[in-house]
Amino acid sequence: MSSHEWTEVSIPNGESDERVVLASIETYNGDNTAAVRTRNVDSDGMEFFVEEEQSSDSETRHNREVVGFFSTEPGKITDQFGHTIGESEVVATRQADDDQWHSVSLDESYSNPVVFAQVMSYHGRNPCHTRIRNVGPDSFEFQIEEWEHLDGAHNEEEIGYVVLEAGVHLLSSGIPVEVGTTTTGHAWRSVDFSAKVGSDPVLITHCQTRNGEHEVVTRNRRVASDGAQVRLQEEEARGGQHTDETVGYLVLPQTLSQYTSERVASAHEWTDVNFSGAQPSESVVVASIDTYNGANPADVRMRNVSASGMQLFVEEEASQDNEMNHAEEVLGLFKTRTGPLFDSSGERVGETGVIRTDQPGSDQWHSVSLDGRYSDPVVFAQVMSYEGTNPCHIRVQNVASDSFEFQIEEWDYLDGEHYEEEIGYIVLESGGHDLSGSGYVEVGTTDGTDSWTGLNFDGDVGGDPVVISRCQTYNGHNEVVTRHRQVTADGADVRLQEEQGRDGEHTTETIGYLVAPRTTADITTGTIEATEEWSSVGLSGIPSTEPVALASLQSFNGGNTVGVRLRDVGSHGMELFLEEETSDDDETAHTTEDVGVVATSAGAILDEKGEQIGEAGVVRTHQLAADHWHTCDLDESYSDPVVFAQVMSYNGSDPSHTRIRNVGSDSFEYKIEEWDSLNGAHVEESVGYVAIERGVHEIEGEVPIEVGTTKTDHTFGTVSFASDFQCNPVFLTHCQTHNGGDAVVTRNQDVRSDRAEVRLQEEEAGSATHTEETVGYLVTPQLILGNRRSVAEFHPSCHGFEFVNSFHELPDLPNLPGNLDDKIENIDARYGLCGGMALAALDFFLYDRQVPDTTDDETPQSGPLFEYLWKRQMDTFDHEHTYRYLRKFVQFYLPTTFTRARSVEELRSLKRALDDGDPTVLGLVYVRAGDGNIWNNHQVLAYDYIETGDTTRIHVYDPNCPGDNNIEVRVKVKDQGVFDPRPDDEYIEGAQYRGGNKMSRDGIGTLNIIGLIHMDVPAQRPPHNL
């Protein structure tokens, strides 16, 4: 992705200091005339940005676009047979004026050459590009073409060019490329691809002729595996018409073989899995069970696989009985896109694909011909759909250098026939590979039977790797799956497993395995609103059958002494509530507070280098008396550990929390501490703990974390962080000492990017003072509970305003059309600036600027920031075009329209924008005439979505909930019945959620959503004085 700002990109297989780079815009998110400019091209990478011309205005801001690039070394370009099919070179030249053309003589002669050229430096700042003409067998002409409103003279630049013979080729590195030409003008023209270039190919286009005299660039859109659309684009000041030109195109697979490898916990029920950082493409996912908690034969089934996520469960077979419940297991997943796979040197090491087929019978085998040829390939295949409910998996045989066979294998007790399913496969060359754009993977084979066989890993696969295995042979004809146990950094155990109804023995088979470091952090963090009522918190993504969860209050809205209690902590979620103590009275209601949550897996905590910096665990104990302490011995020894502990069950209802003392290098003491007004004895509870080395770390998954201690008493003291977390982080605290004998908890407030405040709090009936104690703290960025996302993406806690949408007095809507004012009385009497805040937050985010701070997070009621928010609110209404979007709000508000049905296309339009990487303002219709006022409806900023079964979950920044990353709009599209207003049509059904709970608001009640409005308003550069 790139926009009008310089973007850095690495070239992982760069060897020569001199490289030729071509680039094209592959999307059409912004329709202003633009091309790609590059600079600082070397063996490691380059910088580029989307450069608009300024014939119509001086504004050069451009929406984010997908940019494809092709990089090669200067010299001959050969195919797999060693034949020269092209050449590339770099020349340096200046442009004297717009009439000058430069001639290039080629080293070889070609039958039907196609030429691509790129300005690879930035010595002259006037917008420019290369223009080509007179392409012959052994020469061509080019110029540095500035736009018509400029003088045509340009400073010396480095020009890289690539000449390729038209046709479909397989390069010497194994990369398939297709080169051709088409004829097009200012209208979009479709181009069909015949080469197998994967689901997300790179498309480079360049005009080959100069039939029209005016300056022109090519623009592309809808780039897919089988084709794309291309057009010509003149400068904005002209009419947009251009005569037909010949346009050359070059299409090839992405050689950045990006993959996701992660672990999730699941049992016999469907589990949602969300992929972070996913791009819209066809995904291939293979999975294995990496633990052996349940001994019954089982494998992984999945469904609804998409770029953003999927569902899976552990599927037992039923040969011996109909009971198919299975213990929770940790599952390893490996996901990539379809197409060829390349290592960091540019060599092809594998490929992936998706096939749809049924299984006519148990003796039917399907043959797959591979696009590449491999020395020692290993095949991993997966049923990725759930059309047939009979338990099944994929069996492979006859793995050859360029093909393999497979079948959808049902268990022996079934008939062997199976419905059509979607089958994903990954083929990789045996050995260790540094995949281009991702990381290390290790692939190999071993002989195995029904007994456990040890695997030893050769490379660095991280401390908690993902292992995938598949049987490669069919020596024994009984159905079989592979199972794992004891997966570590050094190796794992693997075995074959037949159905329960048989004797369990199986002859020797060849087992293929793939092991890769996890690409996602073993942590989830976030904040959630809580009260004295139990609230649900999603934790999907913590890959552990025994997660450890910690919680601390982030706010001090209520002064009564209170702690956080948890229950039902599992791999997919938990419940929590605010637990007041009752020493002074029996009233336990507490105002809403923000609670920070950090959850991880029990076991070692590793940093990004794979070094252990801490550990987490769960102990189960009861409390005999208030003066009884338990010792916890750590698995490792640390220089300066800080300990956090949490009661994670609710077996005893007396208010309680954990207390810690005597923290040493390899142990600490703890107790379940009830308040002084109670007797101190407590029933058995599960206590989770995290011990972590003091300091600033980056844990696996590139998540920063800071751990330290401070001294404080019953008054608030400030903790300053060593690093700036750039947003409202999660801040956990826990008392480390027992200097004062009275029961105590920590309370936090004013959590900022660089600091927070913490104090001690005794029970209400106590003295209200407490002696000084050492308090440990842990600070980490907010991710999204239940969906581990990259911290580099949009986060409301980082990029939203820290004040709430609460404005006292707003101007009347300017130039409001009478037909709007007449329909709804006093339409402009009350309205907020939710849309202005949402759109302004997008402005600041896309222009890499922090949102402005206000004193004590007060909402600005006047001044430059207020005026800018009001202006952007008017922009969301589209007041310059007769209030187009406000008019739609009115239409959706009035009861005579089919709001739910009309919102289906709004939802699809929104998803298309988010698929292209464009956050956008979303209007939410909560109420209609007769149920409430039009100003009770709302606007938010939608920045991402995932599909979970039949539900679209849209992640939003809600200006009514500053700093909260866990707001989402959940929408289902349903079919209308015969008694509905539009039979056979579709309609939406939705609600707004915070965490796992439906939201409500005074004057409206539960925030059920009856309408959506995609408000496609472009971002703009915020004023410099803000």
What does this structure look like?
The structure is a single chain. With 1026 residues, the chain is mainly beta. The chain folds into 4 domains: 72-252, no CATH class; 259-516, no CATH class; 523-780, no CATH class; 796-1015, no CATH class. It contains 6 helices and 69 strands. Strand 6 and strand 7 form a beta hairpin.
Topology:
Blueprint: E1 7-10, E2 20-25, E3 34-39, E4 45-52, E5 67-72, E6 75-78, E7 84-95, E8 102-105, E9 113-119, E10 128-133, E11 139-146, E12 154-165, E13 167-170, E14 176-184, E15 189-192, E16 202-207, E17 217-224, E18 227-233, E19 245-252, E20 259-266, E21 271-274, E22 283-289, E23 298-303, E24 309-316, E25 329-337, E26 339-342, E27 348-359, E28 366-369, E29 377-383, E30 392-397, E31 403-410, E32 418-429, E33 431-434, E34 440-448, E35 453-456, E36 466-471, E37 481-485, E38 491-497, E39 509-516, E40 523-530, E41 535-538, E42 547-553, E43 562-570, E44 573-580, E45 593-601, E46 603-606, E47 612-623, E48 630-633, E49 641-647, E50 656-661, E51 667-674, E52 682-693, E53 695-699, E54 703-712, E55 717-720, E56 730-735, E57 745-749, E58 755-761, E59 773-780, H1 796-799, H2 818-823, H3 834-846, H4 864-877, H5 884-893, H6 899-915, E60 920-925, E61 938-948, E62 951-957, E63 967-975, E64 986-994, E65 997-998, E66 1000-1001, E67 1005-1006, E68 1008-1009, E69 1011-1015
Helix pairs in contact: 3-4
